Amino acid sequence: TKHLIKNVLWTTAKNFTVERGRQQIEELISTWDIHESWLHHSEFLEEEELKDSKRYHYRACWGIPTRRRPIPQATANVYFVIVISKFKPDTTPVEVFYRLESSRLIRRPEQCQFREKWLKDIIENKIACTERL
């Protein structure tokens, strides 16, 4: 079945601020179909100046705390980049990309539906790895 990909109306380059970027990432995350037991926090990491753009890096750290384990055994990170072109008009919306900590594949929110399974896989792999050690 084809899922409807929900997206966010991204702010324009001229209206962008670091905090507005974080708020919009939260808005995007709220469209993802993820069970309520997952908790996350998001944070701004750094600003990167390139020849053709400015890139703003963010991270959302996910886990499932429980009554028995209020601090999760493992967490999964999703990294976001908001790109502001230096060549496009400042009325153009920012571009947004994300990737999972275990992957080099870069995804665009409007082209790919986020899957809760990706978070589960990262955490299961981390737990299996620590158990082997």
Automatic annotation (TrEMBL):
Pfam families: AKAP28 (PF14469)
Any GO CC annotation of this UniProt entry: cAMP-dependent protein kinase complex
GO molecular function: protein kinase A regulatory subunit binding
InterPro entries xref list: AKAP, AKAP_28
Protein name: AKA14 protein
Organism whose genome encodes this protein: Myiagra hebetior
UniProt gene name: Akap14
